[in-house]
Amino acid sequence: MAKKEISQAVILRLPRYYRYLEDLMEQGVERISSNELSKRMHLTASQIRQDLNNFGGFGQQGYGYNIKNLHDEIAKILNIDVEHDMIIVGAGHLGQALANYTNFRKRGFLIKAVFDQDPRVIGTTVGNAPVLPMEKMDDFVKDHGIKMAAICIPKAPAVEVVESLIADGVVGIWNFAHVDLAVPENIVIENVHLSESLMRLSYRVGEVYRNQDEEKNE
Amino acid sequence: MAKKEISQAVILRLPRYYRYLEDLMEQGVERISSNELSKRMHLTASQIRQDLNNFGGFGQQGYGYNIKNLHDEIAKILNIDVEHDMIIVGAGHLGQALANYTNFRKRGFLIKAVFDQDPRVIGTTVGNAPVLPMEKMDDFVKDHGIKMAAICIPKAPAVEVVESLIADGVVGIWNFAHVDLAVPENIVIENVHLSESLMRLSYRVGEVYRNQDEEKNE
User: Fold this and answer.
1) B79: left (phi over 0), alpha (psi -120 to 50) or beta
2) Phi and psi for B46 in degrees, rounded to 5?
3) Which 47-66 residues of chain A touch chain B by CB within 8 A?
4) What is the DSSP string of A170-210?
C-alpha cells in the first residue's frame, strides 16, 4: 500500500472529497469526471486528478471516476470504514449538539455515553446515549474499550479529565475546551476552538471594510 | 500602520496569542517574557518575538511584554476592539450552544436574535436572544445593520438563506452547515465543518495504530 506516501495536504482535503462523493451517491450518481467534480468543488481538474491519483487508477480516461469505489477507498484511508465507539464529556448545549448529530452516526461514529456531573441531566438520554455521572467515566471507557472522546467541558476541568481518559486507553481527543492540551506523542488531539474561528471571521470582516475604504481613497 | 504587511500565517496565530494573553490578564499577570510565553504556548521564543515584532516594540529587553498593551493591539487587528451584532440562523442544539456561549459575549460578539421556523421554539429565549420566525430575518438584519451571521441549519436551506443574508447586507458568514457556500468576493466565510474535523481525528487515530503495528513488525 502507498498510504504512507500520501502528503498531509492531500489528507487534509480528503474529508471534503468524501463529503462530495457522499452527496453524489445520495443523488444516485455513479460516475463523475474530474472536470465535473472540479466545477462542484471549486478546485482545478488537474488538482483533483493529482489528489485522487494517490489512490491508484480509479479515474478511467473518458469514463470518469467510479464514485462508490473512490468513496470506499477514501473511507478506508480516513479510518471510517470501521465503527468507532466514542464518549462525550459534558452534556451542556455543545455536548448535546454533538450527541444529536445524525451525520456522525451515519459515518460510524457511535456515541456510547455522555458524562456530566449535573444531577439534573444524569439519567436522561441525549441522542441515543445515556447521560452518566462523571465517576463512572473511567470504568466505562476501560470496560468498553473506548478510543475516542469529545471534550465539551470548561477548560479548568478539561486538563484532568483528558489525563484520566488517556490513562484509560483513549487515543483520540476531540477537544472543544478552550485550552491547548499537552498529551504524549502517541495520542492525537483535534482542536475545535470556536472562539478562535469567530475571531478569524471578525478579522476578515474588518479586512473587507479596510479594502473598501482604501478603494474609496484611491 | 503596518497592518497590511502582517502575513496570513501570523494572523492565523493571533487568536491563540489573544487567548493566552486573556488568560494571563485574568490571572493578574502584567508582563511576560518571550521565554515564559514560549513555554506556555509550546512555540519557540524566537517565533514569538518574530510574530509579536509585527506590532511594534511591545517587548522591552529584560522587561518582557506588557500584556495589556499587546492584548489590546491584537484585539484591534482582529477587529474585536469593537462590538459586533450578530444573528444565528437555526435554534437547534448547535444554534443554542452558540447563543449560550458566554465567551462570545465577553469578546463583544452580541447575539441579537436567533431565527427558526419551528413554532415550538419561536417566542422563547436562548442565551439572551429572542427566537424569531424565519420570515422576520430579512427585515431584522436590515433594520439592525447586522453584518455577521452564524448558519446552524441543514445544508439544503442554508444556500438560499445565505443568499438572502448577503442581499440584506451581511458581510461575514460563520458557516456550520455541511456545504461549501459560493459567495461574492467581498463576502467572507469561515467554515466549521465538524464532520470533517472528526474524520481528520479518525484518520490520525488510524495512523497511531499503523505506526504501532510497524514498530511491532520491525
Assistant:
1) left
2) -75, -35
3) none
4) --EEEE-SSSPPP--TT-EEEE--HHHHHHHHHHHHHHHHH
Q: What's the pLDDT score for residue A159? A: 95
Residues from chain B that touch A196, judged by Cβ atoms under 8 A, are 15-16, 19
Query: B64-82 burial string, b = 16+ CB within 10 Å, else e?
Result: bbbbeebbebbbebbbbee
B57-104 pLDDT, tens digit each: 555 666 788 899 999 999 998 999 999 999 999 999 999 999 998 888
Separation of alpha carbons A165 and A160, rounded Å: 9
Q: Predicted confidence band at B9 (pLDDT cuts at 50, 70, 90)?
A: confident
Q: How far apart are the first and last CA of chain B?
A: 57
Asked whether the beta carbons of residue A109 and residue B79 sit closer than 8 angstroms, the reply is no
Q: What is the pTM of this model?
A: 0.89
Cα distances from A15 to residues A66, A134, B98, B146, in angstroms, run 17, 32, 24, 32
